[in-house]
Design a protein that fits this description.
By secondary structure, this protein is an alpha/beta fold. The protein has one domain: NAD(P)-binding Rossmann-like Domain (Rossmann fold). It has helices at about 5-10, 55-65, 80-85, 110-120, 155-160, 175-180, 200-210, 225-235, 240, and strands at about 45-50, 70-75, 90-95, 105-110, 130-135, 165-170, 185, 185-190, 190-195, 215. Helix 2 (about 55-65) links the parallel strand 1 (about 45-50) and strand 2 (about 70-75). Helix 4 (about 110-120) runs parallel beside helix 5 (about 155-160). The structure holds NADP nicotinamide-adenine-dinucleotide phosphate. NADP nicotinamide-adenine-dinucleotide phosphate binds near residues 75, 76, 77, 135 and 176. GO terms for molecular function: oxidoreductase activity. It comes from Georgenia muralis. Keywords: Oxidoreductase.
Length: about 250
């Protein structure tokens, strides 16, 4: 059985637990240091909007609710959104994808192609919003490469589709099931975050921190190219590591 078969089999078995919530400016050169670890930023966000009602929505919503945030789930499948909301503990509302966006931070919890499409369709509704791209744009036909060409990333393409949004890459290296608890092997998840708008990036880092994880500034949005490679690698490693989809990518020693 190949890796892709393993992946498909695991996906069809739904790797994310179905349990209820556990608790409530760029240069083209890479020669200069580009990251500054934000020091325990406070999240100013009150409502998080998540578009999609799948596994990652479950994970990220669970963490945000545990941190005391309000969550708005917008999905094309109203029944799926309502069913998910009913399982979560906390202040959750649902609506269609084109409903008014309540959150200042919007997570696109969609496959890459859909995220790109929805980002373009929502257009002005995303202006000024922090838009979090969590996608791993894997070529699922081969499970051997990404569908974005070298030199760009899903996040950078989504930023082009929604030029007035402040696009941040994050959560693509954390598996959905692990987000439900926010930890792996007793260690808080690292949420690696990249973006060109410092305030937007700090907000996503603060969201992760407030939800019991560790947000880590991974640099400008172009670092999404590397984050997406890491996310893809983490997926392919499941074939070696027992196909549990319960592992975490973490930087130790800092
Ligand atoms: N699962 C993970 O562990 C994990 C980890 C890191 C990153 N990610 C990334 O997170 C994203 C979401 O993954 P997931 O596991 O949550 O996927 P999922 O469980 O399959 O959920 C995907 C959601 O997107 C919706 N959707 C699909 N196409 C759409 C469209 N054209 N318009 C509107 N909604 C659409 C689906 O709605 P329907 O049910 O109506 O199809 C569903 O609600 C993906 O980009 C993935 O690469 C996943």
């Amino acid at each position: 059985m190949g890796l892709f078969d393993l992946f498909r089999r695991t996906r069809s078995a739904d790797p994310a637990p179905r349990s209820a919530a556990t608790t409530a400016s760029e240069t083209t050169q890479d020669t200069t240091p580009e990251t500054t670890q934000t020091t325990t930023p406070r999240s100013t966000m009150s409502t998080l909007t998540i578009i999609g009602a799948g596994n990652m929505t479950r994970g990220i919503a669970t963490r945000a609710l545990a941190a005391g945030h309000t969550v708005q789930i917008l999905a094309r499948d109203a029944e799926a959104a309502a069913a998910l909301a009913a399982e979560l503990s906390g202040d959750v509302t649902t609506g269609p994808v084109d409903a008014p966006i309540a959150g200042d931070v919007v997570v696109l919890a969609l496959p890459y192609g859909a995220a790109l499409e929805v980002a373009g369709q929502l257009g002005q509704a995303l202006a000024g919003k922090v838009v979090v791209d969590i996608t791993n744009p894997v070529d699922f036909a081969t499970f051997d490469t990404l569908v974005v060409p070298a030199g760009t990333s899903a996040a950078e393409e989504i930023a082009k589709a929604a030029p007035e949004a402040k696009v941040v890459k994050g959560f693509n290296t954390t598996f959905a099931g692990t987000l439900v608890s926010g930890e792996v092997a007793g260690q808080p998840l690292d949420v690696l975050v990249a973006g060109d708008d410092d305030a937007a990036k700090a907000e996503v880092i603060a969201l992760a921190d407030s939800a019991g994880m560790r947000g880590v500034d991974a640099g400008p949005l172009r670092r999404a190219q590397q984050l997406e490679a890491v996310g893809f690698l983490h997926m392919t490693l499941q074939g070696t590591l027992g196909n549990t989809w319960s592992t975490g990518v973490k930087v130790l020693g800092a």
